[in-house]
Amino acid sequence: MSTTLVEIGREELRQKIERGDDFVLVDALPSIAYAGAHLPGAISIPPERLDTLAERRIPILDTEVVVYCANPSCESSVQVAQRLVELGYRNVRHYAGGKQDWRDAGLPLEGGRV
């Protein structure tokens, strides 16, 4: 796809979460992985459910959305972010490091297996 995703780094994302900024953090992993552990405040939208969940979970197209998945080699977050752009979302960012980068930095996770 020709869409270039705007990246966000771990530190900037951490600050946004800590400040309580108004944005939607999307975990693009399967629901079972989300239930086990996810970044604070994240919602679950796996690629196969995006078209049915996006409008309900993120009703305003100008909302800032940050998408992540497991690690830099995980493609789910890229798929979800690109599809959000295709659906008309205008402020989509990608946290390429994902859950692994967040965990490796010793930052907190939420869920059943943290």
Helix and strand topology:
Layout lengths: L5 E2 L2 H10 L4 E4 L3 H6 L6 E2 L5 H8 L7 E4 L7 H11 L5 E4 L2 H7 L10
Parallel strand pairs: 1-5, 2-3, 2-4, 4-5
Describe this structure as you would to a colleague.
This protein has 114 residues and is of the alpha/beta class. It has five helices and five strands, in the order βαβαβαβαβα. It has a five-stranded parallel beta sheet with strand order 1-5-4-2-3, covered by helices on one side. α2 links the parallel β2 (24-27) and β3. The longest helix has 11 residues, at 76-86. It is globular and about 35 Å long. The N and C termini lie far apart (35 Å). The mean pLDDT is 94.
Short summary:
The termini are far apart.
Short key terms for the protein model shown above:
single chain; 114 residues; alpha/beta; 5 strands; 37% helix
Instruction: Note the gap between the termini.
Output: 35 Å
Tell me what portion of residues adopts beta-strand conformation. Answer: 5-15%
Determine the mean pLDDT: 94
Q: What letter string, H or E per element, gives the SSE order?
A: EHEHEHEHEH
- How many helices in DSSP terms? 5
Strand order of the largest sheet: 1-5-4-2-3
Instruction: Determine the structural class based on helices, strands and strand pairing.
Output: alpha/beta
Q: Tell me the radius of gyration.
A: 13 Å
Major β-sheet profile: 5 strands, parallel
Q: How many E-type strands?
A: 5
Query: What form results from the Cα inertia axes?
Result: globular
List segments where confidence is low: pLDDT < 50 over at least 5 consecutive residues.
none
